[in-house]
Amino acid sequence: MMKNVLITGGTVFVSRYAAEYYVKKGYRVFVLNRNSKTQPDGVTLIEGDRHDLGSKLHNYHFDIIFDITAYTANDIDLLLNAVGGYENYIFISSSAVYPESCPQPFHEQTKTGANKYWGKYGTDKIEAEQTLLKREPNAYILRPPYLYGPMNNVYREAFVFECALNNRKFYLPKEGQLRLQFFHVHDLCRFMDIILDKKPSRHIFNVGNKETVSVRDWAALCYKIAGRNFEFVNVNSDVEQRNYFSFYNYEYCLDVTAQEALMPGTMPLEEGLKESFEWYLNNSDAVNKKPYIEYIENNFV
Q: Which of 49, 62, 218, 252 makes the best surface tag, with the fewest CB within 10 Å?
């Protein structure tokens, strides 16, 4: 039976990928956004601002709500107040809810709290989670690390691809030993399918690749995929690395044992980055670039 699903957003990265994914599955996909960008093929647009919905959703009943654009408790409240009805609710939260001072890897049972690297973004996500579970105890909350894949408009792998294609040396902080955890957006959608099918008793899941990767190996892999030789420059100065690099100087790891029990295995990083690269070649203008290269040229070259 065809399912009616609501996806908040639907025009950028995770929400757009999810919209196209569920259209391909044959669902009737509604997207809620302000109609300021091109809509995915096959969706039904509900044009509106989630902060000022009025009666736009009163007459809708959804089998599934995929809430991908909620950042605050107010975002959750306003959507729940506006929608006519729903059966299942999945909220994409963040690993930013875990304090950097807690022991790692972070488990779902790790106490949430302020993280000095993520600041208000993380504490707002905590309040959004709490509000959702208070109002809808059967909702599911997913906490990913760094998401990647096609449609990623964040200047992460795209930055490395750009450097590679322009035959630039890559500037890495402190020999590139910082380790990061990633999760492909397709695996996120796969896991949401499993959640909806199995309805596990656990309602909060860390999600992500089981393995972490050093930023040096990650950058080298991006160069390999772009067909370029990887040369890096080691930056040992105390300059803030976000001036020239895509990530904070913050290493963390999520325990994803509960995810692995339901969905053994995730997309290999090289395969996922190949998909990212293929998308980037035709969509580089869709990436929100930052002045990393300009900073490098003005300060390091």
A: 49
